[in-house]
Amino acid sequence: MKKLVILASVLSMFLQIAKASDKDTTKVKKEVLKKTEIDVVYNHYIQDGNNSAVTGGIGTEKLIVYSPSVTYKRVQGRRGLSLKIGSDIISSASTDNIDFVKSSASVLDARTYSNLNVSSMSKSKRVNYGLGTGFSIESDYFSLPINGFISKVSKDKSREMGMEMQVFLDDLRWGRLNPGYYSPQYLIYPQELRGKDWFETTKRKSYTAKFSLSQIINKRNIIGVYPAFTVQSGLLATPFHRVFMNDSTTRVESLPEKRHKLALALKWNSFIGGRTIVKQDLSMYTDDFGIHSIAYEHEATFKLNSELGVSPFVRFYSQKGSRYFAAYKQHTVNDLYYTSDYDLSTLSSFKIGMGLKYAPFKQIGKHSLWNSVQLRYAYYKRSNGLYAHVMSCVLIFSHQKKLQK
Amino acid sequence: MKTKYTLLAFAVIGLASCVAVKPHEMVYLNDEEMKLGNSMNKNFEIYIETIREGSTSAGSNKSSGGCGCN
User: Fold this and answer.
1) B46-65, pLDDT tens digit by residue?
2) Alpha-carbon dihedral angle through residues B48, B53, B56, B58, given to the nearest 10 degrees
3) Which residue among B34, B35, B53 places its CB closest to the CB of A293?
4) Alpha-carbon distance A361 to A368, whole Å?
5) A20 pLDDT exceeds 80?
6) Do A145 and B65 touch (CB under 8 A)?
7) Contact call for residues A390 and A380 (beta carbons, < 8 A)
């Protein structure tokens, strides 16, 4: 509650600063531009591996996710609005192993989510601020996000600084989407471990403060620095993850009820020659679960002509695992916290792929445009054998009209 | 410690080498591909990476929660 009051105070401060900056005087425009954009996105994810946390670090991780979404964005004068609605339809072999009943309802799950964001710009057009909220719901998870941001551009437009606060209020109880219930009931444990309540809380709270600084270096180079700090509290373990101990007993995953995360990303985009853009991204991360990681991503965009561009990319990632992780039957009965979730293990990963963008800006009717179609494919491989194919397709349409004020 | 000093040195050299760019010279910087934010189709990859890896990237713009436990 105390954190919510602090968050409300910070958001209120944002609005006061933004209001103050509105005092800049400029001439009132007689015409206001109304621009609408619709983004249609389809993502497809195929994964396989043999270290499922549901079965204690052994067993199939076969997974397919079908993920369509639509985003509506509207900018009218200095005010902006965006509404995103999407769904992830998940076909998972591992969640079927919670109760070992094949072809049960658990084999197909769905996450539905929506986000609404409103923003406003100061009269000087140098300060942008906004608020957002939404929801994410699946049978065993509900998440309520709340966020606020403010950013300011320097007078010569060479520098931009920003700050964003995010809060996620999550509830891990099952039953919201299940016939006969349609309300949160209880945590879902593995079938053979349902005799007792393993956790006192069913809630998870995440508070994140993000900062950003982008700086133009010269006519062809721009850099960005993005620090972020997150505090999580509540039920941070997943209640249907099994852990097999070295005395052959089985328990539900156990993790501390507090986690602090610190992350830093550095980005550098460079326009080389007349047709090539190189993007470099270095990310570092540390937390008090004992995870430390570093990632480097390199992407080059080659503009074949004014409408068509291809973007090959590659990413390397290295992670030192959590002190609470151990493999199948490696945890001792004296361990206070334990998990066999390989996402938290010591690992490295490699991603390679290609993006294709066709942007014809083709006129549809009097005021509408088909802006672009973007296709992207990535192959992801993790050092423990897990691999994935990630595909996405984005279609962007826009509508622009001048309104008399 | 050595890494921290190297990064700090890069940051100082980088910022010291900044030059003023006039609005009419921003033709390359204004290109859609030069934006520092993530493209929409890359966002999904970042979302997957935050689930399949133990870390959460500072550059990601996660917009909704979710179990991510499959």
Assistant:
1) 999 999 999 988 866 554 45
2) -90
3) B53
4) 9
5) no
6) yes
7) yes
- What SS3 class is residue B6? helix
Q: Å from B52 to nearest chain A CA?
A: 5
What average pLDDT does this structure show over A116-123?
96
Closest Cα in chain B to A66: B44
Partners of residue B50 in chain A, C-beta under 8 Å: none
A352-370 pLDDT, tens digit each:
999 999 999 998 888 899 9
- If phi over 0 gives left and psi between -120 and 50 gives alpha, with beta otherwise, what is residue A240? alpha
Cβ <8 Å between A136 and B65: yes
**pLDDT digit string (tens) for A50-64?**
999 999 999 899 999
Counting Cβ atoms within 10 Å, is residue B19 exposed (0-12), middle (13-18) or buried (19+)? exposed
Picking from A98, A50, A96, A55, the residue whose alpha carbon sits closest to that of residue A340 is A55
Positive or negative: CA dihedral A123, A150, A153, B39: negative
E strands, A329-386, in order: 347-358, 362-364, 368-382
pTM: 0.87
Collect all residues with Cβ–Cβ distance below 8 Å to A157 and sequence separation of at least 6.
A216, B23
**Contact residues on chain A for B14, CB-CB shorter than 8 A:** 215, 217, 223
Mean pLDDT of A197-214: 95
Q: Which two tokens stand for residue B27?
A: 């033709």
Instruction: Give me the residue label for tokens 């390679």.
Output: A352
Provide the pLDDT confidence category of residue A181 given band limits of 50, 70 and 90: confident
Q: Check CB contact of B12 with chain A, cutoff 8 Å.
A: no
Interface contacts A/B by beta carbons within 8 Å = 193
User: How far apart are the C-alpha atoms of B56 and B47, rounded to whole Å?
Assistant: 9
Q: Residue A348 contacts by C-beta under 8 Å, 6 or more apart in sequence?
A: A316, A317, A318, A319, A382, A383
What is the Cα–Cα distance from B6 to A292, expressed in whole angstroms? 19
The ipTM is: 0.87
Q: Does B67 touch chain A (CB under 8 A)?
A: yes
CA distance A63 to B48: 12
